From TrEMBL:
<dbReference type="InterPro" id="IPR006659">
    <property type="entry name" value="Arsenate_reductase"/>
</dbReference>
<keyword id="KW-0059">Arsenical resistance</keyword>
<protein>
    <recommendedName>
        <fullName>Arsenate reductase</fullName>
        <ecNumber>1.20.4.1</ecNumber>
    </recommendedName>
</protein>
<dbReference type="Pfam" id="PF03960">
    <property type="entry name" value="ArsC"/>
</dbReference>
<dbReference type="InterPro" id="IPR006660">
    <property type="entry name" value="Arsenate_reductase-like"/>
</dbReference>
<dbReference type="InterPro" id="IPR036249">
    <property type="entry name" value="Thioredoxin-like_sf"/>
</dbReference>
<comment type="similarity">
    <text>Belongs to the ArsC family.</text>
</comment>
<keyword id="KW-0560">Oxidoreductase</keyword>
Length: 114
Protein backbone atom coordinates (compact mmCIF):
# COMPACT_ATOMS: atom_id res chain seq x y z
CA UNK A 1 0.00 0.00 0.00
CA UNK A 2 1.17 3.51 -0.78
CA UNK A 3 0.68 6.27 1.79
CA UNK A 4 1.37 9.94 1.13
CA UNK A 5 1.92 12.25 4.08
CA UNK A 6 1.96 16.01 3.81
CA UNK A 7 4.60 16.53 6.46
CA UNK A 8 6.29 19.22 8.49
CA UNK A 9 9.38 17.79 10.20
CA UNK A 10 9.17 20.48 12.91
CA UNK A 11 5.74 19.18 14.05
CA UNK A 12 5.69 16.45 16.70
CA UNK A 13 2.33 15.07 15.57
CA UNK A 14 3.54 14.92 11.99
CA UNK A 15 6.73 13.12 13.05
CA UNK A 16 4.73 10.61 15.12
CA UNK A 17 2.35 9.99 12.22
CA UNK A 18 5.28 9.44 9.87
CA UNK A 19 6.80 6.98 12.36
CA UNK A 20 3.56 4.95 12.41
CA UNK A 21 3.59 4.84 8.61
CA UNK A 22 7.25 3.81 8.45
CA UNK A 23 6.76 1.10 11.10
CA UNK A 24 3.73 -0.45 9.38
CA UNK A 25 4.70 -3.46 7.25
CA UNK A 26 3.78 -3.23 3.59
CA UNK A 27 3.39 0.56 3.53
CA UNK A 28 5.39 2.50 0.96
CA UNK A 29 5.60 6.07 2.27
CA UNK A 30 5.82 9.19 0.12
CA UNK A 31 6.74 12.23 2.17
CA UNK A 32 5.83 15.66 0.87
CA UNK A 33 7.25 18.49 2.93
CA UNK A 34 4.47 20.86 2.04
CA UNK A 35 6.33 23.98 3.16
CA UNK A 36 8.99 23.19 0.52
CA UNK A 37 6.60 21.70 -2.05
CA UNK A 38 3.29 23.52 -1.51
CA UNK A 39 -0.10 22.01 -2.16
CA UNK A 40 -1.88 22.83 -5.37
CA UNK A 41 -5.20 24.46 -4.56
CA UNK A 42 -7.04 21.56 -6.19
CA UNK A 43 -5.14 18.93 -4.19
CA UNK A 44 -5.67 20.81 -0.97
CA UNK A 45 -9.41 21.10 -1.64
CA UNK A 46 -9.56 17.37 -2.41
CA UNK A 47 -7.67 16.37 0.75
CA UNK A 48 -9.84 18.54 2.98
CA UNK A 49 -13.08 17.29 1.41
CA UNK A 50 -11.98 13.64 1.45
CA UNK A 51 -11.07 13.98 5.13
CA UNK A 52 -14.63 15.14 5.80
CA UNK A 53 -13.56 18.65 6.74
CA UNK A 54 -14.18 22.18 5.58
CA UNK A 55 -11.38 24.62 4.74
CA UNK A 56 -12.14 26.45 8.01
CA UNK A 57 -11.60 23.18 9.93
CA UNK A 58 -8.13 22.84 8.40
CA UNK A 59 -6.75 26.29 9.29
CA UNK A 60 -3.65 26.32 11.44
CA UNK A 61 -4.04 29.18 13.89
CA UNK A 62 -1.13 28.45 16.20
CA UNK A 63 2.12 29.94 15.00
CA UNK A 64 0.55 31.85 12.12
CA UNK A 65 -1.16 35.20 11.60
CA UNK A 66 -4.36 33.46 10.40
CA UNK A 67 -6.41 34.79 13.30
CA UNK A 68 -5.23 38.37 12.82
CA UNK A 69 -6.01 38.12 9.11
CA UNK A 70 -9.52 36.89 9.88
CA UNK A 71 -8.98 33.68 7.92
CA UNK A 72 -11.58 31.71 9.88
CA UNK A 73 -14.25 34.27 8.97
CA UNK A 74 -13.59 34.08 5.22
CA UNK A 75 -15.58 31.93 2.81
CA UNK A 76 -14.25 28.52 1.80
CA UNK A 77 -12.81 29.73 -1.52
CA UNK A 78 -10.92 32.59 0.12
CA UNK A 79 -9.53 30.23 2.78
CA UNK A 80 -8.34 27.78 0.12
CA UNK A 81 -6.74 30.63 -1.84
CA UNK A 82 -4.89 31.80 1.29
CA UNK A 83 -3.79 28.25 2.13
CA UNK A 84 -2.54 27.62 -1.39
CA UNK A 85 -0.60 30.90 -1.29
CA UNK A 86 0.81 30.22 2.20
CA UNK A 87 0.87 26.52 3.16
CA UNK A 88 1.76 27.42 6.76
CA UNK A 89 -1.97 28.13 7.16
CA UNK A 90 -2.76 24.44 6.68
CA UNK A 91 -2.94 22.33 9.81
CA UNK A 92 -1.17 18.98 9.62
CA UNK A 93 -0.63 16.23 8.88
CA UNK A 94 -2.86 14.93 6.13
CA UNK A 95 -2.30 11.33 4.99
CA UNK A 96 -3.79 9.75 1.87
CA UNK A 97 -3.94 6.04 1.03
CA UNK A 98 -6.15 3.98 -1.25
CA UNK A 99 -8.51 3.68 1.75
CA UNK A 100 -9.02 7.42 2.08
CA UNK A 101 -7.69 10.61 3.62
CA UNK A 102 -7.30 11.45 7.28
CA UNK A 103 -6.30 14.58 9.11
CA UNK A 104 -4.08 12.80 11.62
CA UNK A 105 -4.58 14.76 14.79
CA UNK A 106 -4.08 12.73 16.94
CA UNK A 107 -1.59 10.65 15.02
CA UNK A 108 -3.39 7.36 15.66
CA UNK A 109 -6.13 8.42 13.20
CA UNK A 110 -3.76 7.29 10.45
CA UNK A 111 -4.49 3.67 11.42
CA UNK A 112 -8.04 4.11 10.04
CA UNK A 113 -6.67 4.14 6.49
CA UNK A 114 -3.92 1.53 6.74
Amino acid sequence: MKATIWHNPRCGTSRKTLAILEETPGVEVEVIEYLKTPYSRAKLAQLIADAGMTPADAIRMMGTDAEERGLADMDADAILDAMAANPAYVNRPFVETEKGVRFCRPQDKVRDIL
